[in-house]
Amino acid sequence: MAKIKPSKGAPYARILGVGGYRPTRVVPNEVILEKIDSSDEWIRSRSGIETRHWASPEETVAAMSVEASGKAIADAGIEAAQIGAVVVSTVSHFSQTPAIATEIADRLGTDKAAAFDISAGCAGFGYGLTLAKGMVVEGSAEYVLVIGVERLSDLTDLEDRATAFLFGDGAGAVVVGPSTEPAIGPTVWGSEGDKAQTIKQTFSWDRFRSGAVSELPVDSEGNIKFPAITQEGQAVFRWAVFEMAKVAQQALDAAGITPDDLDVFIPHQANVRIIDSMVKTLKLPEHVTVARDIRTTGNTSAASIPLAMERLLATGEAKSGDTALVIGFGAGLVYAATVVTLP
Amino acid sequence: MAATQEEIVAGLAEIVNEIAGIPVEDVQLDKSFTDDLDVDSLSMVEVVVAAEERFDVKIPDEDVKNLKTVGDATDYILKHQG
Ligand SMILES: CC(C)(COP(=O)(O)OP(=O)(O)OC[C@H]1O[C@@H](n2cnc3c(N)ncnc32)[C@H](O)[C@@H]1OP(=O)(O)O)[C@@H](O)C(=O)NCCC(=O)NCCS
To answer: Where in this chain does the record put each EAL domain (chain B) (predicted)?
Structure first.
C-alpha cells in the first residue's frame, strides 16, 4: 500500500483581524411603525432595538462582504493572496448557484482560494470559525477568511408585527490564521432539528413554480409577498434563555475558563432581553464587557458577532488580547459557542 | 416532597423579585403578573423557566398565557408538580 504524506498545519489557530460593514441607511423604529400597530417604547423594551441598518440595492451581499473583508485582511496585516479559503455564512443571498464565496474571493484578489457558502443561520459565524480553525490546524489553508453577511431586510415581512422590527443588514469578517498558543477554544455546537419549525421561511422557493402562483400570499396592496422569516417568538426566547446559557457555560468549561477570567461576552445579537438573561444566569462579573450592538444594528444573524466584535474593539470597550466568549444560536435550531482571544 | 400553596407563593415571590425587582411582599395570589407586578410577556417566560426548575413541573408555552395571576400559577404548579 502506498504511503500518503500527512498534511501539516499550524500548532494552533487564532483570529488575526476583524472587519465590519454597516449599510449607510439607518432605519429608526418610526419607519417600522408605518406598517405595524406597535410603539417605539414596546420595541425598545421587548428587544432593545432603537435603529437598524437596511442595505440599498448597491449594498449587495457580495459588496458588503468585500468591504468587511478588506478591513479584516488589513487588520490582520496580511495580503489577500495569502488567503487559502473563504467561508461565507449567509441565508440571504438569493442565487444558490454559484456560491457567493467565489465572487468575493475573486473580488478580494485572493490567489484561487477555496471558497464556499454555509447555511447555519445565526450560528453561522461560530460554524465558520470552527471550520476555519480546523483548516489552519490541519494545514489545508494558512489563512482563512470567515464572513457572516445578511440582507435580512429582504426576508422581513414588514406587515408582521412579531418580526418587522427585529432584523437588519450588514457584514462582518475575520481572518483566522496560525498561532503558537491556543487562541480559539473547543467549540460546543449542535443542532435541534425537532425545533426546526420555530424559526423558518414563510414558504419555500419552489412555490414560485408556475401553477402554484395564484396560491402565494399577497400584501395589503395585492402584490405577491416574498418569503420571509417567521418565528414562534416565545418558544425561541425560552430556548435561548434556558438552553443557551447552559451551552455558554459548557464552552467556558471546555476552554478551562471561569466567568472571572473572561473580559468580553459577545452573544448573538437577537434580543437584548436574551443577552441580559444570559448575563444573569452565567453570573458574569461586573468587569466583563457585554456586547449590546443589537440596539443600533438589530438582528443581523450570521453577521452579528463579528460586527459586535469589531465595534467593541473600535470603541475601545474591548482590546486586542482580551478573552471573549462568543455564542451564536438560531434557525435550525443550531448553536455554537467558543472562547476566543480577540485580535 | 410536593410544595404547599404557601411554599409555592413564597417561591414565586422570590423568582419575581429576582427577575423583575418587585418586593416579595407584593407578590400575592390575586396579583396579575403583567398589570400589578411589572412582569411582561418575556419576563413571564423567565419566571416560568425558573418555576419549572424550582418546583419540578413542566409548563408548556401554550399554558403560559393562561397564567394571568400569581394564583393561576400557584394552582397550576399545585396540580402539576412532580
Ligand atoms: C419577538 C419577541 C420580541 C416578541 O415578544 P413576545 O413577548 O413573545 O410577544 P407576544 O407575541 O407573546 O406578544 C405579547 C404581547 O405583545 C403584543 N405584541 C406583539 N407584537 C407586538 C408589537 N410589535 N408591538 C406591540 N405589541 C405587540 C401582543 O399582542 C401581546 O399582547 P397581549 O398580551 O395583550 O395579547 C420575542 O418573542 C423574542 O424576541 N423572541 C426571541 C426571538 C429571537 O431572538 N429570534 C431569533 C433567534 S436567532
So the answer is: 1-82
Q: How far apart are alpha carbons A175 and A145 in whole angstroms?
A: 5
Question: Mapping DSSP to helix (H, G, I), strand (E, B) and coil, where does residue A335 land?
Answer: strand
Query: pLDDT tens, A157-191?
Result: 999 999 999 999 999 999 999 999 999 999 999 99
Nearest CA to ligand 1 atom 14: B41
Ligand 1, atom 15, residue with closest C-alpha: B41
Mean pLDDT to the nearest integer, A135-144: 97
Average pLDDT of the segment spanning B12-35: 91
Torsion of CA A126, A93, A109, A6, to 10 degrees: 40
Closest Cα to residue A281, out of A244, A255, A252?
Answer: A244
Is A212's pLDDT higher than 90?
A: no
Rounded CA separation A104/A88 (Å) = 9
List the single residue in B with minimal CA-CA distance to A241. Answer: B46
What are the boundaries of each domain within chain B?
Answer: 3-78
**What are A284-307's pLDDT values in tens digits?**
999 999 999 999 999 999 999 999
A40 φ, ψ to 5°? -60, -40
B61 and A235 within 8 Å at the Cβ level: the answer is yes
pTM of this structure: 0.94
* Spatial contact of B44 and B59, defined as CB atoms under 8 Å apart: no
Nearest C-alpha of chain B: how many angstroms from A64? 34
Q: Which CATH class, in words, describes the domain spanning B3-78?
A: mainly alpha
| A238 min Cα distance to partner chain B (Å) | 6
Instruction: Report the C-alpha gap between A23 and A291 in whole angstroms.
Output: 20
